[in-house]
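Bit of a strange request maybe. I'm writing a small parser for structure token strings and I need a real example to test against, not something I typed by hand. Could someone generate the tokens for this chain?
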Amino acid sequence: MKRLLSTVVILLAVPAIAAEIAPSDLRRILAAKVPQISAVGGDVTLLAARDPDLAERLASRPGSTGLARLAVEDPPLAVIFPAPSPAGPLVDTDLDGVPDRVGQVIATARETLALLGEVGLDGPVDDGDGELDIYLLSLGNVARGYVGLERAAPGGRGASGFIVVNITHPAGGEAIEAITARLVARLALLGIDRHAPGWWVEPSVAWFELQVTGPSLELASAVRSRWSRPELGLQTGLARVARGNLELLLALEDREREARALRETWTALADRREVDGRDAAILEALVRGTGYGIAELQARAAVRAVVDGLEPTRWSAEVEEIPAGGVATTIHAGPWGGGLVSLRPDPLHPAGTRLEVRTDGPGWTISLIALRGDGRWERVFGRPGGETTELLVPWSDYRRAVAVLIRDGAGGRREADLLIDGAGADGLFALASVSARHGADGSVEIAWRTGWERDLFGWIVERAEGPGQPFVPLDEFPAPSLGGPDSGAFYRLRDPGVPDDVLPAYRIVAVTRDGLRISGPVVIPSH
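Reply from user aminoacidic:
Good idea to test on real output. This should exercise your parser:
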């Protein structure tokens, strides 16, 4: 706290402000909106955006009676809070002269403002006093805080204002830090465009919150809500689902690219000419900033959520048993919406499961991920779907699969019809023979023959350098499949790099057209 103390300017009673609202009136107003506030994670700003009367009340500054003011210079902040008391929440356990939670809020605000600058975005618009004003008040156990917007910024798109944080929220200090980071970022972004669409405001402020205060159950819940309702589409009006669009940024898996996407989108909002072109400006900037199409970005986000264990609570389809005739279902989706289909092995169809997607035309992106027996996921991204697209999941190496279907926003068909069936009892190929033999020069020749092949892309040969050792591919690129549904082929591959002290074992692995594996038998070389 040394830096904080070195920049203390003044601590005194706050002078009266023209437009005021008493903290007791604030608590009364917010207490009447418990269900709505809970639904948006305690951030009342979201309700004010849809309720002009509430927005007008929240634009009034809290009354000054019984409040103190602490101003710091770097950057200019003013924190207004109830006078400390031994029994209240504003205790000073380290005896540095600043209540602990006041210090927490100042440190969090500073870090958020610094991050805004790193991303290439300005801090909140000045409301005329040259400082960012943060009020710490007792709002009961419902609201966590809000942004109060007072006046339009130059140019009329953005707005200036102040921040109110509930200093007595039962969730404690970590929740206070999280809402502070979120509200500082929100006030800065609303200074760019106060009417920016919520589907992009929410993930943007959530990203800043995540970077400053770390992961939270609330953010994880928002992502899960997003993928429990994928059919709503990207431009959803539900606040919690919209906040789950955070996964669009995290799917980039690169902090520099995430920051670039934010900079591009909010700069585009500031620079756009059309009054009603906000959504289009954001979508175009997202493509420009990430290098991905929106449908592929959505697919990557869904895949990342599942891989990270943030599975939806409600799947578009969940198939574990396949009756005679298969499983048929239809997915309905809005623009940039889609569906998630969970597949598990059916003991009656051990070879594999076949998924057929019919859309009567283009406009959908189809991805497939599968969970290997060792707990690793294999991913196939962004495959454009045609009128009919088939996916195949072999179960020899996998215990789970998820298909991700995303509709584009260009007017493609709203429905995708799914038919899920077994892959057939005979498997995808007939392996007639496999052999491995040491050569005179120390190399090993691996040969195999098939009776027939279906739905295969190629073959990989893997080597283990002893019992219990992992199998490693000899070549990262599969040898192409030469057989067909009614014909087999002969293959021969030479491994020249066998160390003298190694007793190798080899395994033949078939690779499907969807990029998934089917492990064959293990062979030990003969002499």
